[in-house]
Design brief:
Layout (H helix, E strand, L loop, with lengths): L2 H70 L4 E2 H9 L6 H16 L1 E5 L8 H13 L8 E6 L19 H20 L3 E3 H10 L2 H4 L5 H10 L3 E6 L7 E6 L1 H6 L2 H12 L6 H9 L1 H15 L1
Antiparallel strand pairs: 1-3, 2-3, 4-6, 5-6
Helix pairs in contact: 1-2, 1-3, 5-10
């Protein structure tokens, strides 16, 4: 047999073997693809169910971090901010994510998000706008703003357990907390409103300009207004001068309780008179509130 024919047969045989190998590989690949598709379909169903829970868990963690970051700078936790910065494309899951974040904050940090009361309308113009909005919308009024407060039992809310923040420093934070507690106490004990002249007189007696370690008194007061501890109400007068009145803000009403005000007055007063309890309750309106509750209970019976 001539060598050329032998070479042709070898080449033909090699080609046939290569074609067979390719066919076998293609069949194996098709089988593996079919099995892989079925596995992916089965796994995909499971993963979609897990994805719902996993997505909620991630949103809960994200909301916890957002709340802690806001409270670090004493920035209000707004519902619109939660939707924009936390929920994103899942606005309908607000209630579920909010409740999950509350549970994590309570279990891990001993904190919870408390809704702030609606800011009171002080001036005549603000009251007119509020009445117009109230008549236009019959829905329930809500501030849609929150802050973090301690959820620990009363016996654990002691200075040895809950001390001042170490940022920027413990002494500075303690001085700041003492200052806004004192200012709020003065406003509450003066009937809920305090003129600017009277407040300045109190601060002068306390030598606040030298005792505040963090900043000038005016700057600290502006910070209190910005963080909603107090409200500065400015009304235009008939003359050139405006009337300035200081009131307790939404955050101040939550953080500084009547018990805190009683503690401040007790510490400052020193030797208390015999009728101190009666007088402080009258100033805080506690006695009147209890009397109203008692009268309503009697009428119900």
């Amino acid at each position: 047999m001539p060598p050329s024919q032998t070479q042709r047969r070898r080449r033909t045989g090699d080609r046939d073997e290569v074609d067979q190998v390719r066919r076998r590989q293609s069949q194996r690949n098709n089988r593996s693809d079919d099995s892989g598709d079925s596995e992916e379909d089965n796994d995909g169903d499971v993963d979609m169910e897990r994805l719902g829970d996993g997505a909620d868990d991630q949103l809960v963690k994200k909301l916890v971090r957002y709340a802690l970051a806001c409270e670090y700078g004493r920035i209000l936790i707004k519902r619109d901010g939660i939707r924009d910065k936390v929920l994103g494309n899942n606005p309908r899951s607000f209630k579920r994510v909010f409740e999950g974040a509350q549970i994590q904050l309570q279990k891990v940090f001993g904190l919870e998000m408390a809704e702030l009361p609606v800011k009171e309308k002080r001036t005549l113009k603000e009251k007119q706008k509020a009445n117009a909005r109230k008549s236009a919308s019959q829905g329930t009024t809500s501030s849609r703003q929150y802050i973090l407060v301690s959820s620990l039992p009363r016996e654990y809310k002691s200075q040895s357990i809950i001390g001042p923040s170490r940022i920027p420093s413990a002494p500075e934070e303690a001085a700041y907390a003492g200052f806004y507690t004192m200012v709020i106490s003065l406003i509450v004990l003066n009937g809920g409103e305090l003129s600017d002249t009277k407040l300045r007189r109190y601060l002068t007696r306390l030598n606040a300009s030298q005792n505040l370690p963090m900043d000038r008194t005016d700057n600290v007061l502006q910070k209190l207004v910005r963080q909603t501890y107090v409200d500065k109400v400015v009304e235009k007068g008939d003359g050139d001068e405006d009337t300035v009145t200081w009131c307790v803000g939404p955050r101040g009403r939550i953080e500084v309780s009547p018990e805190s005000i009683v503690a401040v007055v007790t510490e400052v007063w020193g030797e208390l008179p015999d009728d101190f309890d009666k007088r402080i309750k009258r100033s805080l309106g506690v006695q009147e509130a209890r009397q109203v509750d008692a009268d309503s209970t009697i009428h119900e019976e």
